[in-house]
Amino acid sequence: MKVALVHDWLVTLRGGERVLEALCGLFPGADIYTLIHQPGTMPPLIEDRRIYTSFLQDIPGIHTRYRHFLPLFPRAIESFRLEGYELVLSSSHCVAKGIRKPPGARHLGYVHAPMRYMWDLFDDYFGPGRASLPVRTAARSVRPWLQRWDRRTADRVDRFVANSQHIAGKIQRFWGREASVVHPPVDLERFCAGPLEATGQGGYFLWLGAFAPYKRLDIALEAFRSLDAELWVVGTGQEASKLTTGALPPHIRFLGNVPDADLPALYRNARALLFTGEEDFGITPLEAQATGRPLIAYAKGGVLETVTPRTGLFFSEQTPAALAHAVRQFDAWERAFVPSEARAQAQRFSRQAFLRGMEAEVEALLRSPVVR
Question: CA 89, CA 108: separation in Å to the nearest integer?
Fold first, then answer.
């Protein structure tokens, strides 16, 4: 079959791009369609494909300012013409699922999340203190229109696959559609390679991720002001200047972006990974468990599908006080923690399991009658 893979944008390598990479392995001859692409940022399985970009690619500085052009994203994704393709497979957390398929083609939509900043996490991105007044005003003005477009274009997808039960629930709530669930692939081999003995010896707690509003790094920073424990923070992002400005105690360290090769050791030596956001799925909890380390996690979202009460300590309120209380409880909880149980939990979410699941979803789509 002639297959088109559709992804929102190719600028940074994160969980969604790892899904696209796996899909490239499943469909070796597929072309890629995306709003913008910064060459050299993706792994070879993606970079070596024919990659078609939208008119947004020609805007100077677009690769660092693309979020400012959100109102143009629907028009940009609809500008693609996919004549000749028999299967369209979108990987979407923004507008990719809104692409127009050619007559006779089938569209399988893999959803990382509905457009979170226009739905349930709007205040996390555009609430007071999160964005300037002009940005908040603009976001409020375009929100109803983007929600209508997002809901309407769900009908362009023949079959939905969600990355978690959590997201399947959002697809039902926002779009009125059912979705199967295939969890994303996790590159477990390099995280499972190390021994389980003598893990957690670094003495620090680890927070790792993009500095995006909904990930709530601010909760960890505020909690550790009052704690006598080390916090190491890995990553950067749109809130970097806000979160790293001002006096912080010396036991909080910012490491910036860390090479991929160094991540397994960072996980392995940490006492626990802190997971403070409500994530759609979350790759880092599985990477941490694969190295044999537990989590202290906010008890909402996809983490409830990947972490068990034996491999992580949950806190129920998304506040610094609740996190600080969980950290203080951790010494007692850790006595019953078994690293091998954490690794076994992570191994349930392998790349092979993802590929088997997606093959089954494609087959089910192709066998089903055309109803849309």
Answer: 5
What tens digit of pLDDT does each residue of 333-345 get?
999 999 999 999 9
Q: Is the residue at 209 inside a domain? A: yes
Token representation of residue 182: 């295939």
Four-CA torsion 357, 362, 367, 371, nearest 10 degrees: 120
Q: How many CA within 13 A on the CB side of residue 302? A: 23
Give the Cα separation of 115 and 296 in Å (integer): 27
Q: How remote is the C-alpha of 299 from its chain's centroid?
A: 17
Range of the domain at 335: 189-349
Long-range contacts of residues 239-242, Cβ cutoff 8 Å, at least 24 apart: 239/211, 239/212, 239/213, 240/211
Same domain, 27 and 139: yes
Does residue 372 sit within a domain? no
- pLDDT of res. 367: 92
pLDDT digits (tens, 9 = 90+) for 64-82: 888 889 899 999 999 999 9
The verdict on 223 and 171 lying in the same domain is no
CA 174, 178, 180, 181: dihedral to nearest 10 degrees?
Answer: 30
In a domain, 324, yes or no: yes
Q: Is residue 357 part of a domain?
A: yes
Read off the pTM: 0.81
Q: Under 8 Å CB-to-CB from 369, ≥6 apart: which residues? A: none
Q: Which residues make Cβ contacts (< 8 Å) with residue 25, sequence separation at least 6?
A: 45, 355
What distance in Å separates the CA atoms of residue 300 and residue 314, rounded to the nearest whole number? 9
How many domains are contained in the chain?
A: 2
Domain match, 90 and 101 both:
yes
Rg (the chain; Cα; Å): 21
95-133: pLDDT as tens digits: 999 999 999 999 999 999 998 778 776 777 777 766 777
User: In this structure, what token pair is assigned to residue 48?
Assistant: 């070596």
Answer yes or no: do 225 and 181 share one domain. Answer: no
Task: Assess whether 112 and 235 both reside in one domain.
Answer: no
Rounded alpha-carbon distances, angstroms, from residue 369 to 160, 177, 357: 15, 17, 20
Which phi and psi angles does 345 have, rounded to 5°? -65, -45
Q: What is the CATH number of the domain that holds 136?
A: 3.40.50.2000
